[in-house]
Amino acid sequence: MKSIGKANKKLRKLKRSFLHDESYRVNRYFNNAFIDHLSIIIIFAVIMQQELFPSEQFSFFSLGSGSSGNCYYLGNSRYGILIDAGIGPRITKKRLAEYGIDFSSIYAVLITHDHYDHIKSVGYLGEKLQIPVYATREVHRGIADSPLTKTRMNGSKRYIEKGVPFQIEDVKITAFDVPHDSDNVGYFFEFEEHKLTLVTDAGTITEEVAHYICKANHLIIESNYDEDMLKNGRYPYPLKQRITSGSGHLSNRQTADFLAENYSSKLRNIWLCHLSSNNNRPDLAYQTVEKQLTRKGIKVGTEVSLQVLKRNTLSTKTNF
């Protein structure tokens, strides 16, 4: 009887083992089949998403740069952002239209500081067209106090803080302090895999400014004056002192030296902005920066694109 009991026990054990193995095989088959089908569904969904919602190509161009008026565009086929509004509304509209862009697709205006060559049209854009205007409280206060702005802003004001990121559609934006003789910010934009930094009206390149410049794939940076032209020019001495002070503007040499010393291979585009009409020339600004980059073994035009943004002129459009 004991031998029969042991035999039955072994039989039950073998049965359980067989059932377990078969169950495992069945489960593994269905699990693998499920994973295969799920993979197909995921791949199909990704393809459909790319077909229906393709990655948006962004573009940058300048509508004008310099003391006669500053305005820059960053956007894609669905919406755009203006940085500064120092050009009249009719000219702004006309220059946007040359690239097929209407005011209705402008979702925001970002202001760097309250000098007139950066805010001329801000009241019109904000109040007449109801485009949100982003600036620090101090800059908004300066705009409101300016005797040159014809339209006062109310509902279009949006307050930002330096160092605190905010979002406009797909674009993450961080304002940072830039030394000038009024409250002034630069902007750091992050969209898709791109990082773009704008620095204008900068008396000097501080550690904070350098931090955001060095993060950029695309850089708009001031190259305001040639040091010899300013020194030997007709400006009165106090104005020369203001321009060259730590709260004035960057010279060609300062910009060139910084870019050459801090160049990174991730930097793809450099635009030189806010050139003086009296103390600089586009060819001189370009040559000064190109020369310093070349000395460091950086191939301008191959490794990095270098362009000068001209006064009162619509620039070429760069897509990325």
- Helix/strand order: HEEEHEHHEHEEEEEHEHHHEHEE
- The number of distinct structural domains comes to 2
Distance between the termini: 86 Å
User: Would you identify the CATH H-level superfamily of the largest domain?
Assistant: Ribonuclease Z/Hydroxyacylglutathione hydrolase-like
Corresponding CATH architecture of the largest domain: 4-Layer Sandwich
The main sheet orders its strands as 6-5-4-3-2-1-14
Major β-sheet profile: 7 strands, mixed
How many strands? 14
List the helices and strands and how they pair.
Layout (H helix, E strand, L loop, with lengths): L1 H51 L6 E6 L6 E5 L4 E4 L5 H9 L8 E5 L5 H4 L2 H7 L4 E3 L1 H9 L11 E3 L6 E3 L2 E7 L7 E7 L2 E6 L7 H8 L3 E5 L4 H6 L4 H8 L7 H10 L7 E5 L8 H14 L9 E4 L9 E2 L1
Parallel strand pairs: 3-4, 4-5, 5-6, 10-11, 11-12, 12-13
Antiparallel strand pairs: 1-2, 1-14, 2-3, 7-8, 8-9, 9-10
Summarize the structure.
This protein has 320 residues and is of the alpha/beta class. 39% of the residues lie in helices and 20% in strands. Strands 6-5-4-3-2-1-14 form a 7-stranded mixed beta sheet. It has a 7-stranded mixed beta sheet with strand order 7-8-9-10-11-12-13.
Walkthrough of the structure:
With 320 residues, this protein is of the alpha/beta class. It has 2 domains: 1-54; 59-319, Metallo-beta-lactamase, Chain A (4-Layer Sandwich). Helix content is 39%, strand content 20%. The protein has 10 helices and 14 strands. It has helices at residues 2-52, 89-97, 116-119, 122-128, 137-145, 207-214, 227-232, 237-244, 252-261, 282-295; strands at residues 59-64, 71-75, 80-83, 106-110, 133-135, 157-159, 166-168, 171-177, 185-191, 194-199, 218-222, 269-273, 305-308, 318-319. The protein has a 7-stranded mixed sheet with strand order 6-5-4-3-2-1-14. A 7-stranded mixed sheet has the order 7-8-9-10-11-12-13. The protein is globular and about 70 Å long. Mean pLDDT is 89; it is low at 22-26.
